[in-house]
Description:
By secondary structure, the protein is mainly α. The protein contains 12 helices and no strands. The protein has helices at residues 2-15, 27-30, 37-58, 62-77, 80-92, 98-106, 112-129, 135-158, 166-174, 177-198, 200-225, 230-255.
Amino acid sequence: MKNVMKSMFIAISMYSKVPTPFIDWEEEAMQYSFCFFPLVGLIIGAMELLWWYMAHLIGVNTFFFATVATVIPLLITGGIHMDGYMDTMDAKHSWQSKERRLEILKDPHLGAFAVITAFIYMILYLGAASEIASLRACIMVSIGFIISRAYSSMAFVWFQPAKQEGTFYQFAKSANKKAIAVTQCIILFICTITNILINPFVGSVIFLSTLLTFLYYKRMANKFFGGVTGDLAGYFLQICELIIIMLVVLGFKIVT
């Protein structure tokens, strides 16, 4: 039980700015860390719902609501996943060898593709967030933060690391893969059923789309990088969340 609690604190401290007790990254304590990765998504989702309630309570305009809703995930995570997204877009669009792309991922400097694609991402997300008009839609978007992290955790079980070093490999080597697979399947099942109960059409589309995105992620990572890294995990998470919020917005437009 002690190691389980340590694993939870490691996951939260690694992937968010939420204050936690200091925990040494012992291999034994890290084995269940990714069982708790979706907990960070739950925190983000809860803050998004709280902001939706506050915004409607005080009557802020749509644009201001969307702006805060867009930056909440970045503030809570410290932008760690957006950093991975930007690094990946730089490397992917370099059209270099796999080895060179991996070097670009490690380069602390930003290239043009990173800036351009990050700008496009934020504009699309901001626009979609401005269309979140109902509590049901906000709940489904909030659940998306859990879904993206559950799939990302599954990648540690099913995907091969691109290199035998780095944070991704360190966690993957220490992980209790059976426990992670079971917990993430349960979490994804609960999230999917909840979404379908809220809106059968939108919930079903989200399930199919995120599954296809997950499969694309594996194919892309193997093709361009020879496996998965921490930066690529951030790329997938950001893409998955953008797809979810856009599907929620478009889906509710179609069925209402």
